[in-house]
Amino acid sequence: MPVVPEPRAGLHHLELWTAALAVTAPSWHWMLTTLGWTAEPVPGWDTGRIWRHDDGSYLVLEQSPDTLGRRSERRGPGMNHVAFTVRSRAELDALRAEAPAHGWTELFSGAYPHAGGPDHTAWYGEDPEGIEVELVAAVVPAAAPDGAAEDSSRS
């Protein structure tokens, strides 16, 4: 009999509202599909887009008639930014180089890649409506000397 894993805590979905889907969706489509998310068409839904991650979570971008204002303000109350993990520093550098052509504006460029601190390798960008994204390079554990596994039982 198959073993069914226990439910775990995690992100179910994130819904972002936009004042101009036609302006913002191409930026998000490029970012998310480059990061491995899959666009999920919803026939007949002209005011929104969905991208799904392999883990089942998904991101919704919707142009709602209830949206107030024209831009997100990350420095105000509410969500400041969304952070995604990338596989490596090389992937981070490549995304940074391509992002402006897809509508992303780099934030904190003078401190790249350590705007979050010396032990944090990341790129920060803003979509055409001011929603901030942080791309964090995954930390690759350093190998023990001579490639041997480190014994954590020794002190």
What's the short story on this structure?
By secondary structure, the chain is of the alpha/beta class. The chain has helices spanning 21-34, 89-98; strands spanning 13-17, 38-39, 48-52, 58-62, 81-86, 105-107, 122-126, 132-137.
What order do the helices and strands come in, and which of them pair?
Blueprint: E1 13-17, H1 21-34, E2 38-39, E3 48-52, E4 58-62, E5 81-86, H2 89-98, E6 105-107, E7 122-126, E8 132-137
Parallel strand pairs: 1-4, 5-8
Antiparallel strand pairs: 2-3, 3-4, 6-7, 7-8
Overview of the structural elements:
- The protein has 155 residues and is of the alpha/beta class.
- The chain has one domain: Roll (2,3-Dihydroxybiphenyl 1,2-Dioxygenase, domain 1), CATH 3.10.180.10.
- Helices cover 15% and strands 24% of the residues.
- The protein is built from two helices and eight strands.
- It has helices at residues 21-34, 89-98; strands at residues 13-17, 38-39, 48-52, 58-62, 81-86, 105-107, 122-126, 132-137.
- The strands form two sheets. Strands 1-4-3-2 form a four-stranded mixed β-sheet, covered by helices on one side. A four-stranded mixed β-sheet has the order 5-8-7-6, with helices on one face.
- Residues 149-155 have low confidence and may be disordered.
- This is Glyoxalase.
- Pfam families: Glyoxalase_4.
